[in-house]
Specification:
Blueprint lengths: L1 H14 L20 E2 L5 E2 L2 E8 L2 E7 L4 E7 L6 E2 L5 E2 L10 E9 L7 E8 L5 E8 L6 E8 L8 E8 L5 E8 L9 E8 L7 E5 L7 E6 L5 E8 L6 E9 L8 E2 L5 E2 L5 E10 L6 E9 L6 E6 L4 E6 L2 E3 L5 E8 L6 E6 L2 E4 L1 E7 L2 E6 L7 E8 L5 E11 L4 E5 L2 E2 L7 E7 L3 E9 L4 E10 L2 E7 L12 E9 L2 E9 L2
Parallel strand pairs: 25-32, 34-40
Antiparallel strand pairs: 1-23, 2-23, 3-4, 4-5, 5-6, 5-7, 8-9, 9-10, 10-11, 12-13, 13-14, 14-15, 16-17, 17-18, 18-19, 18-20, 21-22, 22-23, 24-26, 26-30, 27-28, 27-31, 29-30, 31-32, 33-35, 35-38, 36-37, 36-39, 39-40
């Protein structure tokens, strides 16, 4: 217990200080998902490789060296208990894993009854790398499948972190780390992908996803089917990983990933390194938990710990604009880490609007309504608070403004010599200065009908077809230019003698 407490303290010092906080959203920046360390040691001298549903709740597969995999179970992803025996160990299946067994990833079948397939990296006695597979019906007893699922450069290229993703009943995509030059140099480690059309038995290589260096990779699927990859990355000119980054694709079938800015988690490369991030949905389902190991500088003993996404992310609001004379507006907020029964408010110039009829269709979407009636014009922040108090905002998400003014002209074609006139009514929603001037089609000023303050509501004035000097204008087309609060328009009036 004393050792565990000391380890937790080291985790706090090594990881917590390196975690980048959630970025406040400004007009030119976008917040990204971030993990907060939970400051505890789950296991010492072990590394988590995969986590899946199983046992009493969850089953974790761990490496206790390069020769065997063991497992542990948990009901809450916090307290883990090791299970007896080994799940997989080095042995002769065509000799592919005779020397070592390293990383693994899990795929659940679509058949009934279902079974698990484990993809793992084996190293043979000559030091050649292969992605191999084993199957299990209970997650405890595993049976190696013959042959290699994947090799690069005849086995000479480094391989790590095989992470399968099911696309359909027969289509599977495998993400993995490999040396882009077919050898084994950490400077050339990249995230690669390969595809299978026979349920994950044979794979065709599809190449590197991006040029960014990566040491280990974990794959997750969002509620809307987008795919996010998490990958560890070294600091500049370093051979050890110091940060976890991410990339996002539109869906399982896509191989076009966009790198997301900043870090999901980081540590000080001078004092520690981190490796094998494994990201799964937490027991709360709307949050994500990352299991990862770290070593202190000068040590080869790993400590397995975890981190959790606590703060929601507010990415967009629709609609972005409304008028202060509206009595009710429906809205949709998109983002991430939205818990059940969130609270939504809008904070603006000296005022706060509390949303009502708030619903959460899923962990990426919030809907509801707000009442902007008689609220101040200006920019408003959208604030989302989860049930446990963690909150985030989107700066200047909403603009409340004056609704556009309206103009109506009664008799815009009239005969002034027969007593005709044009009756002009302007409706504005905010008191302010109004000007109404008449021009010829060549731009010459004919008359100023109104130039002064006007109250909110209707203001009416009449043009009798005369110039400012009182002379009746010639027949023809004239332009009425009217400006005022939220109105700037030009209308046509025809005079006939």
């Amino acid at each position: 217990m004393e050792k565990a407490n000391r380890s937790a303290g080291r985790i706090a010092g090594l990881l917590l200080s390196g975690v980048l906080p959630i970025l406040a959203l400004a007009a030119s920046a976008q917040a990204q998902i971030s993990f907060t360390p939970e400051n505890r040691t789950i296991f010492s001298s072990m590394t988590a490789l995969a986590v899946t549903s199983g046992g009493p709740g969850f089953r974790m597969y761990l490496s206790s060296g390069n020769f065997a995999m063991v497992s542990a179970t948990s009901t809450d992803q916090v307290a883990w208990s090791l299970e007896g025996g080994t799940r997989l160990s080095t042995g002769a299946i065509n000799g592919y894993d005779a020397s070592s067994i390293t990383a693994c990833g899990l795929l659940v079948s679509t058949t009934t009854p279902s079974y698990l397939r484990m993809y793992y990296v084996g190293i043979d006695s000559a030091g050649f790398y292969s992605v191999l597979s084993a199957s299990s019906t209970d997650g405890l007893a595993w049976f190696k499948e013959p042959g290699a699922r994947l090799q690069k450069n005849g086995g000479k290229a480094f391989l790590d972190s095989p992470e399968p993703l099911r696309i359909s009943s027969t289509a599977v995509r495998l993400f993995y780390i490999a040396d882009s030059r077919g050898a084994n140099s950490h400077a050339n480690y990249r995230v690669f992908t390969a595809s299978s059309t026979d349920g994950g038995v044979t794979f065709a290589e599809e190449g590197a996803l991006f040029s960014t260096a990566a040491f280990h990779v974990s794959v997750t699927t969002l509620t809307d089917a987008r795919v996010r990859l998490y990958f560890s990355q070294p600091a500049a000119s370093s051979g050890t990983a110091a940060m976890v980054k991410s990339a996002l694709a539109s869906g399982a079938a896509s191989t076009s990933f966009s790198l997301e800015s900043d870090n999901r988690l980081s540590t000080n490369p001078a004092t520690s390194s981190l490796f094998y991030p494994v990201v799964v949905r937490s027991t709360e389902s709307f949050r994500w938990r990352m299991f990862l190991s770290y070593t202190e500088a000068g040590s080869t003993t790993p400590f397995l710990t975890s981190a959790l996404t606590l703060t929601p992310i507010v990415l967009s609001l629709s609609p972005r604009r409304t008028y202060f004379n509206q009595s009710s507006m429906s809205f949709t907020i998109n983002g991430e880490i939205f818990g059940p029964s969130p609270a939504v408010s809008f904070v603006g110039p000296g005022s706060t609007m509390t949303a009502f009829s708030v619903a959460r269709p899923d962990d990426l979407t919030i809907t509801g309504s707000f009442n902007p009636f008689n609220q101040p014009n200006g920019l408003w922040d959208a604030v989302v608070a989860n049930y446990d108090g963690y909150s985030a905002s989107l700066r200047w998400a909403l603009t409340i403004e004056t609704p556009p003014g309206e103009i109506s002209i009664l008799d815009n074609l009239f005969r002034p010599l027969k007593g005709g006139s044009a009756k002009i009514t302007v409706k504005i929603y905010e008191a302010g200065n109004v000007t109404a001037r008449l021009y010829t089609i060549n731009g010459g000023l004919v008359a100023t009908l109104y130039d002064g303050p006007a109250p909110a509501g209707n203001t009416t004035f009449t043009w009798f077809g005369k110039t400012s000097l009182g002379n009746t204008v010639a027949s023809g087309l004239y332009l009425l230019r009217l400006t005022g609060p939220a109105i700037d328009t030009t209308q046509r009036i025809v005079v006939i003698k």
